[in-house]
Amino acid sequence: MKKIYLILISFLLISCSFNQTFSNREEDKKDAEEISQKFFWELKYGGNLDTIYNLFGDKFFEVTDKEKLLQIINTTQNDIGRVEEYDLVKWETLIIKGSNAKSEYLLVYNVKRGMAKTEETFSMEKDKNGDIKIVGYRVNQDLLNK
C-alpha cells in the first residue's frame, strides 16, 4: 500500500509544472529595445540587409519571406520617407521561467519619417538559443493626418 502512495505522489509531482512569471519588468523592456534600436539604426544609417534579416526569427519567415520583408522596408522608405526619429509609446513584456518557459515582448513606436508619421509595432520572442528575435512587424500610417 505504501508503494502505491509513493507512486501516486511521484506522478503528482512529475505532472506539476513550476513556473515563475514576470510581467512588464523594465530590464526586459531594455533587452527588447536593443533589437528594435538595431533595426531602426540599420534603416537610418546602415542598410545591411543581412543584419536586418538576422534580427528576425524563424517564426517571422514562416509567414513572410525575405523578399516580402525587403518590399515592406523599401515601400515604407520610398513612399513615407526614411526614419528620422522614433519614440517608444507602449510596451509589454511577459517572461515565464520554469518548466513552461517563454519570453514575449511587444513594443510600439511612433516614428517620424520624411513625409509622415507611422506607428510601428514589434512582436518579439526569445528563440531556443536565448536570443530575442522579431516575430511580428507592422507599420501603420494615418492617411487622414499626414
Topology (SSEs and partners):
Layout: H1 2-15, E1 19-23, H2 26-46, H3 49-54, H4 58-63, H5 66-80, E2 83-98, E3 102-113, E4 117-126, E5 132-141
Antiparallel strand pairs: 1-2, 2-3, 3-4, 4-5
Which keywords apply here?
146 residues; alpha+beta; five-stranded antiparallel beta sheet; 5 helices; 5 strands; DUF4019 domain-containing protein; signal
Task: Sum up the overall morphology in one term.
Answer: elongated
| Fraction of residues in β-strands | 35-45%
- Unreliable segments (pLDDT under 50, ≥5 consecutive)? none
The tally of beta strands, per DSSP, is 5
- Written as H for each helix and E for each strand, in order along the chain, the element string is HEHHHHEEEE
Structural class: alpha+beta
What spatial order of strands do you see in the largest sheet?
Answer: 1-2-3-4-5
Q: Looking at CATH, which topology would you report?
A: Nuclear Transport Factor 2, Chain: A
**CATH C-level label:** Alpha Beta
CATH A-level architecture: Roll
Q: What does the radius of gyration come to?
A: 20 Å
Distance between the termini: 76 Å
Portion of residues within helices = 40-55%
Number of helical runs?
Answer: 5
The whole-number mean of residue pLDDT values reads 91
Q: Could you explain the architecture of this structure?
A:
The protein is an alpha+beta fold and 146 residues long. It has one domain (19-141): Roll (Nuclear Transport Factor 2, Chain: A), CATH 3.10.450. The protein contains five helices and five strands, in the order αβααααββββ. The chain has a five-stranded antiparallel beta sheet. The longest helix is centred in the first third of the chain and has 21 residues, at 26-46. The protein is elongated and about 75 Å long. The mean pLDDT is 91.
